[in-house]
Amino acid sequence: MLMNTQRLFDRMKREGLDAIVATAPENVTYTSGFWAMSQWIRRGPQSYVLTPAEGCGEQAVIASTGTLDLIADQDVKIKDVRRYGFFAIESDLCVDHEVRDQRVSRMLSEDDCGDAVGALVSAIQDRGLDTARIGVDEIGIIPQYFDKLVAALPRATITRAAETFRYTRAVKTAEEVKRLRGSARVAELSIDAALSVAKEGATERELAYAFHAKTISEGGTPVLGVICTGPRSALSSGQPTERKLVRGDVIRFDVGGRHMYYRADISRIAVLGEPSDKIKTYHRAIRAGLLRAYDLIKPGVRTSEVFEKVVETVRKEGIPHYKRNHVGHGIGLDGYDAPNITPGSSEVFEEGMCICVETPYYEMGFAGLQVEDMLHVTKDGIESLMSTSSELRIV
Amino acid sequence: MLMNTQRLFDRMKREGLDAIVATAPENVTYTSGFWAMSQWIRRGPQSYVLTPAEGCGEQAVIASTGTLDLIADQDVKIKDVRRYGFFAIESDLCVDHEVRDQRVSRMLSEDDCGDAVGALVSAIQDRGLDTARIGVDEIGIIPQYFDKLVAALPRATITRAAETFRYTRAVKTAEEVKRLRGSARVAELSIDAALSVAKEGATERELAYAFHAKTISEGGTPVLGVICTGPRSALSSGQPTERKLVRGDVIRFDVGGRHMYYRADISRIAVLGEPSDKIKTYHRAIRAGLLRAYDLIKPGVRTSEVFEKVVETVRKEGIPHYKRNHVGHGIGLDGYDAPNITPGSSEVFEEGMCICVETPYYEMGFAGLQVEDMLHVTKDGIESLMSTSSELRIV
User: Which of A389, B86, B103, B368 is deepest in the core (most CB within 10 A)?
Assistant: First the structure.
């Protein structure tokens, strides 16, 4: 189970929600385990999951007919699947069908609800929720469909609910922590693979190919690949080019793919040959900031307090002019889950959160330096999800 | 230039739009060349491009401060860049800065507009468009921001405009056709790479790793990777598993990554060893359907007519019960650009469209068979963007 069911139910109760509808791919996968490919790779395709409040009924999945095969193949546990749209799937009547194909056949034999809203409305009405207060994740539903839903349920109260999912997803279940540990590991192995081809004359693209190829061979999916060298490392979102490595160059990785749908986001710095004193001093300073966060983060601590103390540490340890907008964020199905480690945040660390802590420094004409670790907030502190050190690496 | 500027202007004129705002990543890249990483890899980050009607002013880019480096590094031609949000970028004052870094410095020296809507409103007001009729692409802007924009421009008329971009993007510019040819080529080479590891006992995952690794080494980005074997090939969106290849298995590829931001979507079928008569007959039938489309498609022809005749051909040539929801779609920055080759469509082929034509057949207990080519509609017919044959491949 990916979903933190009790946290969702508690929040729904506080908000007075009788039901909530996931529409963004992250929230559909989160509430059902259903990875609806089309909505993950494009914007527009609609899949939803309806979750009634605690004790108020079973969940329902709304899926286009063309994605029913994924529901069966992924063994999605939710039984009520409402399909919409025509999609031709034949069946060889002369063979004994596997359980998966039997389920596809059963789902195909149910009525076509016409479109995604029609399917959702039927699930809502069958649960007697047509006069209910229903939160709808506003990120994945196309606005025309949101309007249509409101019109189809004139006696219901429809509110926006993306924030409710974001809040819920912030505290991870054991299965999610396991997946995040795996995604961090894939990213670390991919950095090792990239560094194994780092030598004078190697290009940023060659490092990036090695990085992503390793991510793939470890079962991951490439997403974030900021791999830049020399002065280009100062480009915070820089993409790999044909620039060739020269001795003394910084190699900055701000990287991470998906592993079992869960994101990694980590950062490491290497130098080809002997680093300059400035690189060493500044890297030590940002790393001191990261390590300070290890000491500070525990349940009950405000994220804004960690922000202030981490920035203060980096300043004291070697970059007196250090400034940042944030020094970290949650990580999960999305690369920026809650909480935000920012000066203005009112959020507080909770047991079970998974966090990226980072202290990047970008200086045009010099370099970009960055360390970023993934951490899991435990009962009385943190455990790192990393297997490698954030020390400066010499290659 | 990616954008078909005249087609956009003509459509805006017909719709009476004084300006249009791109918000989805595809439309931001399309109208400006700006690939704003954060909005491509997540849902939520906001980048926009404002395009006034013909002769009514210059374009503007709205970007978070943290993505300005990409604007400079990608040499985005639009000069008016409005930034929002705090993001620290230092500058070594002792070095001569590259042109790229000089541009970042100039953009940083402009005012912070607070948030994406504030930046957009300032660009609209500076063009005297605050009483204008403005189309806003509703797919990429978060609903709260759409509301905020409407409230900030009480005298303007704001309409939804995603369809206007979709219409415009349907007819490709020369640069787009070149990129699509490249993306098709990367996908074909990746299929070859996957088939090079296909042998008895090889798993679907091993084929997929070879496929995606080749996509990466050719400079592409993995997106769609339906690679399934044997009875699993009947799963239309099936994802690779540990299933091992046995002799006689169908290997179905429905695949394609991105190349220079442009999608591929192609399909090929291979068989390990000798194909059964049913496979041969059915594959010949679906391929006959595809080849029929080659003869039919030219400017002025209705897509629904092609749908009917392609389905009819597949039925006549060997699958009498053949049914489909569509036999193709446009391809470009999105995997499903306009037009749709569907029975109900009122769309007509136009010179410059790039199209995927496909005739998949899914039969549980037997196999999935599919051929899909990418085509470019020319003045009097089509040219294929493919380098490989859609014939059944024996490995």
Answer: B368
Cβ atoms of A107 and A64 within 8 Å: the answer is: no
Burial zone of A98 (CB within 10 Å; 0-12 exposed, 13-18 middle, 19+ buried): middle
Per-residue pLDDT tens digits for A333-388 = 999 999 999 998 999 999 999 999 999 999 999 999 999 999 999 999 999 999 99
Residues of B in contact with A325 (CB under 8 A): 66, 85-88
Mutate to test the interface with A, among B28, B286, B364, B369 (most CBs of A within 10 A): B364
Is A121 buried (19+), middle (13-18) or exposed (0-12) by CB count in 10 A?
buried
In this structure, what token pair is assigned to residue B388?
Answer: 């490989």
| Most B CBs within 10 Å, among A43, A64, A90, A108, to test the B interface | A90
Q: Is A305 exposed, middle or buried (0-12, 13-18, 19+ CB in 10 A)?
A: middle
Torsion of CA B33, B34, B39, B44, to 10 degrees: -110
d(CA A44, CA A99): 31
- Who among A44, A324, A366 is closest to B92 (CB)? A366
B387: which 2 tokens? 């380098």
B99/A contact by beta carbon, under 8 A: no
| pLDDT tens string B368-391 | 999 999 999 999 999 999 999 999
CA distance B275 to B270: 9
Nearest CA in chain A to B67: A237
Nearest to A237 among B67, B238, B362 (CB): B67
Counting beta carbons within 10 angstroms of the beta carbon of residue A285, is it exposed (0 to 12), middle (13 to 18) or buried (19 or more)?
buried
CB A173 within 8 A of CB A151: no
Instruction: Express each pLDDT in A250-300 by its tens digit.
Output: 999 999 999 999 999 999 999 999 999 999 999 999 999 999 999 999 999
Give which of A236, A239, A261 to mutate to test B binding, by max B Cβ within 10 Å.
Answer: A236
User: How many percent of chain A have pLDDT more than 70?
Assistant: 100
Which tokens in the block code for residue B209? 């790793």
Q: Residue B140: closest CA among chain A residues belongs to which residue?
A: A43
DSSP A364: E
Q: Which of residues 196-225 of A touch B (CB under 8 A)?
A: 205, 209, 212-213, 216-217, 219, 221-224
| Cβ of residue B320 closer than 8 Å to a chain A Cβ | no
Residue of B nearest to A25 (CA): B43
Q: Whole-angstrom Cα distance, residue A172 to residue A236? A: 28
On whether the pTM is more than 0.90, the answer is yes
- ipTM of this complex: 0.97
Sole residue written with tokens 């490491």: A268
